Amino acid sequence: MKIAVVGGTGTVGAHTVGALRERGHDAVALSRANGADVAKGEGLDAAIDGVEAIIDTTNLSTLSANASVAFFEAGTRHLLAAAERAGVSHLVTLSIVGVDRMPYDYYAGKMAQERLVAAGAVPWSIVRATQFHEFAAQIYRQAGFGPIHLAPRARLQPVAAAEVGGYLAEVAVGAPQGRAREIAGPLEEALDQMVRDYAATLGERVWTPSVSLPGKQMKALRSGLGLPSGEPRRGSQTYAEWLSSRRA
Ligand SMILES: NC(=O)c1ccc[n+]([C@@H]2O[C@H](COP(=O)([O-])OP(=O)(O)OC[C@H]3O[C@@H](n4cnc5c(N)ncnc54)[C@H](OP(=O)(O)O)[C@@H]3O)[C@@H](O)[C@H]2O)c1
After folding, report:
1. Span from the CA of 8 to the centroid of ligand 1 (angstroms)
2. Is the CB of 96 under 6 A from ligand 1?
3. Domains located in the chain, CATH noted
4. Are the beta carbons of 156 and 221 closer than 8 angstroms?
5. Cβ atoms within 10 Å of 145's Cβ, excluding its own
6. What is the model's pLDDT at position 194?
7. Residue among 31, 69, 92, 135 whose CB has most ligand 1 atoms within 8 A, to mutate
8. Which of 21, 162, 214, 216 has the fewest Cβ atoms within 10 Å of its own Cβ atom?
């Protein structure tokens, strides 16, 4: 089956492309680096020619609700229109566990994206995942100021991006589900400790103070609104195992 992964060069997108290829599918990775820009609606038609399903794993790094909504609305509208023109029969969108409970800041964009997909004409599945183990590394890079790397407080149940990629591949080759089962990792973790443990594996001499970052989204994550409710699909790799696998 020919499947396009938009954002297929990113953290989870690359794993998704790998999982599809392992299963024998023809996976095409789309991103701006490959000439396809969902926000501008450029390069999509040619890139999804002959594609049966699309998996959307695009991302914008921002804490601004306005920037996030603008990016995810524009990208989703362009993707839906291109998918409809190409006769794509399944759009799988990756979202985040708990976005409906905390539709603030960055998550406002993810909610806007979910609404457009659910109201769109292309048969869809929305998969919500908890934060990836890789999230600690992303935070470490983004919240680093010289030797100081802020370690935000938050309650998470992180999952390996590789396991999310495998699940997205599985969902994409099946029938559209609407809201698919959420996916979460095996254990609850404290984000500030995850950042410290990540820094320790790098062996860098840095200071990683715990901080309560401002903003409604971070406040909601501190109170546990990003933890799964109900019975999610469980990833098996713990954060400690993921860190060890990086050292190996
Ligand atoms: N990180 C987490 O913990 C987490 C947890 C649950 C769900 N999610 C969701 O998973 C998705 C992917 O997150 P990630 O952390 O894997 O993202 P990421 O590593 O930042 O990768 C983003 C991907 O999107 C592409 N992209 C960005 N702007 C684009 C545009 N205008 N047109 C086409 N492609 C574009 C990037 O490639 P180019 O730069 O080359 O365009 C890249 O391939 C996001 O929607 C996020 O909300 C993330």
Report:
1. 8
2. yes
3. 2-247 (3.40.50.720)
4. yes
5. 7
6. 98
7. 31
8. 214
What phi and psi values does residue 109 have, to the nearest 5 degrees? -70, -40
> Which residue, judged by its Cα, is nearest atom 39 of ligand 1?
32
- Cα-to-centroid distance, 17 and ligand 1 (Å): 13
Closest CA to 172 of 60, 88, 48: 88
CB neighbours (10 Å) of residue 43? 17
Say what the pTM is. Answer: 0.97
Please report the atom of ligand 1 found closest to the CA of residue 110.
Answer: 47
What is the distance of C-alpha 201 from the center of its chain? 24
CA 167 to chain centroid: 12
Residue 201, phi then psi, degrees to nearest 5: -70, -25
Which residue from 58, 94, 183, 189 has its CB within 8 A of the most atoms of ligand 1, so it is best to mutate?
Answer: 58
Walk along the chain (248 residues) in steps of 10 and give the mean pLDDT of each run: 98 98 98 97 96 98 96 98 98 98 96 98 98 96 96 98 98 98 98 97 94 95 96 97 89
Q: Is the dihedral of CA 75, 123, 26, 127 positive or negative?
A: positive
- For ligand 1, the distance from its centroid to the CA atom of residue 10, given in whole angstroms, is 5
Q: Is 31 in the pocket of ligand 1 (CB under 6 A)?
A: yes
Contacts of 237 (CB under 8 A, 6+ apart): 133, 159, 160, 162, 163, 185, 186, 245
